[in-house]
Write a structure and sequence with these properties.
This protein is of the alpha+beta class. Among the domains are: 79 residues, Orthogonal Bundle (Helix Hairpins), CATH 1.10.287; 108 residues, Urease metallochaperone UreE, N-terminal domain (HSP40/DNAj peptide-binding domain, Sandwich). The chain contains ten helices and 15 strands. The strands form six sheets. The protein has a four-stranded mixed β-sheet with strand order 10-11-15-14. β10 and β11 form a beta hairpin. α2 packs antiparallel against α3. It is elongated, with a radius of gyration of 34 Å. The relative contact order is 0.11. About 7% of the residues have low confidence.
């Protein structure tokens, strides 16, 4: 059987950095994970190849041996000796949040991310938002131990419970001692000889959980909130990672946020702008009365203090800035048209005769 080219399996160059190898592994593991590809043996086989490649290249010492001796020198044990642990680690991105395997004992679970979509009204008032996430939770059957009820884990006879194997070899510089995670117990120091049937010895199961997130007023688009201990739990009693909530704020039809200020347009009629008026304007949480002075012009700005977005780190709120827009009527009745013509005549302003636009358009269409 032809040996796998682990670099080709992960789709990286032989000169790739460890971070590039890790990113490639996580992406491919998620794409080919059995949970994402049910009843797809090709995806499952591909997933095992990706895990095997990362087992060899993810550790700098094993990678160096692989580069020198090939796959026979890279493997220090069966990459699937940990059972479903590798599957869980790939699915939940384990290890990115401090969950390595350098020490014996249960390791912390992975951090997770979820998105919360808010309206601008939510931002101004603050809101409790429910978010759902697919995560690893403790197995109730075995009480997160991974061992079947009535049994228990035993100390690993290969590493003596330390979770590490020390190797001594001679070199031209003398004796060199290297330490690596025990392949038999996957660095945990214990073995499950009678695994729980409900979780296959993992001590955790994958479920969808819903959490209520208290989002403070004033939060901005792109902000991240952390819920400590709401991420995936680790294997066999390992602690939970954190849940990071990414905030996305939907665009509003009438308001634009500018820092802690809100920007909007105030539309008034020509007569109101010319003669002055008191106009009601509905802000996001109040009804405001705007005094428009006589002879007001388009572009004039009215500022309302403390009517903007609450300051996330401080007291008070920003301001609401309304930009005046004078609307020209386009649905005049004959009577209103006549009144405007009388006004124009009184002011000595030239205007088109009634129907002039219509006659001109008919003339153009005849010769076009």
């Amino acid at each position: 059987m032809t040996a796998l080219d682990y670099y080709q399996v992960l789709g990286v160059d032989r000169s790739a950095t460890q971070d590039e190898i890790k990113r490639a592994y996580r992406r491919l593991a998620r794409e080919n994970h059995p949970d994402a590809n049910p009843d797809n043996p090709e995806a499952e086989a591909r997933f095992k190849q990706v895990a095997e490649a990362y087992e060899a290249l993810g550790d700098p010492e094993k990678r160096a041996r692989y580069d020198r001796f090939g796959s026979s020198g890279a493997q220090g044990g069966d990459p699937f000796m940990g059972g479903l642990g590798d599957l869980f680690d790939a699915f939940f991105n384990a290890g990115s949040a401090g969950g390595g395997r350098g020490e014996a004992g249960p390791q912390r679970g992975a951090d997770l991310e979820v998105m919360a979509v808010l309206t601008l009204e939510d931002v101004v008032s603050g809101v409790a938002k429910d978010v759902s996430v697919r995560t690893a939770v403790p197995c109730d059957t075995c009480e997160a131990t991974g061992a079947a009820p009535g049994s228990q884990a035993t100390r690993c006879d290969q590493c003596g419970g330390s979770g590490q194997i020390r190797q001594v070899r001679q070199s031209i510089l003398g004796q060199m001692v290297t330490t690596a995670a025990c392949a038999r117990c996957a660095g945990e120091g214990v073995l499950i000889t009678n695994p729980c049937s409900d979780c296959s010895g993992e001590g955790r199961r994958v479920e969808e959980q819903t959490y209520s997130v208290d989002i403070p007023a004033g939060v901005d688009d792109g902000s991240t909130l952390r819920l400590t201990g709401r991420g995936a739990v680790g294997r066999r009693g390992g602690g939970a990672g954190d849940l990071y909530v990414q905030v996305r704020v939907q665009p509003h039809d009438d308001f634009v946020r500018d820092g802690d200020n809100l920007l909007a347009e105030l539309h008034v009629a020509v007569t109101q702008a010319a003669l002055g008026a008191r106009v009601d304007f509905p802000s996001l949480d109040a009804e405001l009365a705007v005094d428009v002075p006589a002879a007001a012009q388009t572009g004039q700005v009215f500022r309302f203090r403390d009517q903007g977005v609450p300051r996330l780190r401080g007291r008070g709120r920003g301001d609401l800035l309304l930009t005046l827009v004078v609307d020209t009527p386009d649905d005049l009745t004959p009577e209103q048209d006549e009144l405007l013509r009388l006004l124009a005549k009184e002011r000595g302003e030239d205007v088109k005769d009634p129907g002039e636009d219509g006659l001109l358009n008919r003339f153009k269409s005849r010769f076009s």
